[in-house]
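Notebook B, p. 112. Complex prediction, attempt 2.
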Amino acid sequence: MEQFVGQIMPYFTVAIFLGGVTWRLWRWMIPRIMHNITLSPFPGTWTAAVTWWVWQIAIFWNILKFDRALWIGAFPFHAALIAIIAGHAMGIYTLGLQFHMIAPLLVSADLSVWLSDLLGTTMGLVFLVAVLYLLYRRFTVEKVRAISSTSDFLHLFLLLTIAGLGNYMRLVPDAHTTYLEARTFMAGLFTFNPVALPQNAFFMWHFFFVQCLMIIFPFSKLMHVFGFFWMRWMVNRPFKEWAPGMPGAKVQVTK
Amino acid sequence: MSTETAKGLRQPKRANEKLFRTLGIEPVPDEKKVEEAIRHLDDFRNKLRSFVVTMENCVKCGLCADNCHTYLGTKDPNNIPAGRADLIRKAYKRYFTPQGKLFGPLVGAEELTLETLEKWYSYFYQCSECRRCSHTCPFGLDTAEITMVGRQILFWLGIGPQLHTATAGAILKTGNHMGLTKAGIIDTLEFLAEEIEEDRNGLKVEFPTDKPDSDILYIPSSVDFMLNPNTLKGAGMFFKWVGANWTMSSRITEAGNFGYLMDQTRIQREMVTRLYEECTTLGIKKIVWGECGHGWRAAKMYVASYSDLPGVAKIPMTHIHDEVAALIESGQLDLDPTRNSQKITLHDPCNYVRACGLCDQMRVIMRAVTSDFVEMTPNRERNFCCGGGSGVLFDDPAMYEYRILASNKKAEQVRETEAEVLCAPCSICKAQLYPMVKEHKLPVEVVGLIDLVGHALVFPEE
């Protein structure tokens, strides 16, 4: 089992993930933007349009404005998720020294490792609480439950499992895996010389469930990561207005 | 034809097969409807990107629910925009996605049935295509696009409301929704000119029809001729005041476009074709649009993609509010706001503020022609639909009752302002709000915006 999950499955996982995402994005590019369905007020320029998209992503502006009860779950959820993914990539690759490498004069190596640990633990817990809140919301808020199918709940349970295992590894010393162990293992995969998984059942299951998430990603609503841009490209864009003023009229617009 | 089916669905009165045949549609027999619908869905997923992206990216967050007037009024989960889209999405997943084919109901994928098509007919004609869902959705997913796809497929199957289908017939015959003939148009305009002469100290306003060598083609809402004469009078007075060389056309006396609301191929195109034929015939240099919400959207944003005639993008097209506001801002109009002194609030027609960028102009005009203007809350692009958008103006009992529920949120907003007058610068909004203010026992008068302009214009002759 360990050999399959740690040395064989990852290659299928990445192939399905990358191939699947490419395939779905290609399917989204085949149909055309047939008509101008932009939303107003129109941004004045493309810079303004892109700024609007970035603003929406940065603080989940629409959710903040139009459903605050959702925002207090959705925003921490996503902010923590980004932090966790970035933290995994940078922390494992640099063995916790990412902050020292970004700002060597301000942050010592030891401080960087300490910060990496602290942020990892905190974000992991924030994420877990956010998932629980969203799960609770989906079960108890009528309007959300009414539009949910079983998979909407299953996604949250999968995330709960992944985050639960991750947090357990962080908080329970016996279940811990070091940056170095993780990096050695990942390096093996990236160099197509897979090595054995770290000797930690929690790590293996964490790694397994993350792969499940990657496999289902292209075939689920998780594609909204890309969908955001595909949709906003259509509905938030500048529009060039015709100038007012009526030719031949005795009274004209003078400004 | 009963308007509530055995399953308790609220549906508008259906057009009969004969009416569809006059539009060139052979209604599809029941046993073939589902497979035809699936075929059309397959077509749409290969042609229309907004459809595919909206189908595949809804995360079911539920934010759209309390931001849609239909859900707020009916508390029906199929009126939650995500739920409404699901009426198609479930079939989309089942037939067009690997997860839907493999896992069915687990991922929210379901076979399409006749029963679902009946729900389409019910819920896609409760949606008003107001796009408040798109405005509020974290991704901007547009349920109005889904409603349009649903209505289009139903039309091709031979299912549609009597109101929309009969109006499509009127469009093909006369180029307007009310079936006005040229004689009727000229008659009404003469009568309106007489009324102005009486009311305004002998002021003589001409309403030209089919006048060649005109610079401006004004496109009024045909229903102005019957229900909103003050809007038409206001426009005529405005054009006289600025000394425009203008005309209307008896072949396209329609600012609206019910084709846009049911058949976005043949019928929508008919209006666009007539528009450009008339511009060529009459030598028009600019088109100025009258007070109609969906019609302005269909014109401003769709004419370029719908015209089969060359040179279409070269004829500039603005809304009469754009013109009035520009003249007010450059200080060229002589207006007396005290003539409209009652406390007045403004309903933002959805298509103006969420689709056409026509928002501030209305405020510029309001402030210049009235002396006691209050905004309702929320306003501008966050405002709620009147409940009648996209022609949800049905008179049969079940749907009339629905219109009252759908306008609950609007009534609440108006009541809060304590205004005496409600300005709704769109023909469908007017048609919805005239009866709805009575149903909600609101002591307000409903008027258009250009009505107020006409009233406030100070003519030297007066």
